[in-house]
Amino acid sequence: QVQLVESGGGLVQVGGSLRLSCAASGTIFSLNAMNWYRQAPGKQRELVAGISSGGRTNYADPVKGRFTISRDNAKKTVYLQMNSLNSEDTGVYYCNLVKYDSSGTRYDYWGQGTQVTVSS
Predict the structure, then answer these.
(1) pLDDT-based confidence at 10, cuts 50/70/90?
(2) What would the pLDDT profile of 86-102 be if each residue is shown by its tens digit?
(3) Distance (Å, rounded) from C-alpha 112 to C-alpha 45?
(4) Contact 98, 33 (CB under 8 A)
């Protein structure tokens, strides 16, 4: 059974930094793509950043140049380093693991979410 546990959220001032972590269990972590999503109050959940099993990364336009996603396969952990935070980065951040079965069916697994609040 796949489990994802996020940590590292909190309250930070505009311009500050936070590092989120997501520890996975119950899966061969190195084979899975990993993503970070966020959901602001009253808005839909949106993709923030992703990293493939091979280490290729992608970012949403609003966070390019400020956020960095990385992974440590030995620790089964994915990270999101967030710098130059602004109020629009406020929201609940969710870790997402993607698996495909032999038929190509996609399965998504989610963490419980961690709150990030950027205050001015």
Answers:
(1) very high
(2) 999 999 999 999 998 89
(3) 13
(4) yes
Are residues 57 and 76 in contact, defined by beta-carbon separation less than 8 angstroms?
A: no
Q: In the structure encoding, which two tokens stand for residue 118, read together?
A: 């950027």
Amino acid letter, residue 90: T
The span from the CA of 6 to the CA of 39, in Å, is 15
Contact yes or no for 29/51 (Cβ under 8 A): no
Per the CB < 8 A criterion, the answer to whether 24 and 78 are in contact is yes
Is-contact 46 28, C-beta < 8 A? Answer: no
Q: Which of 60, 69, 75, 1 is nearest to 33 (CA)?
A: 69
Rounded Cα gap, residues 97 and 14, in angstroms = 29
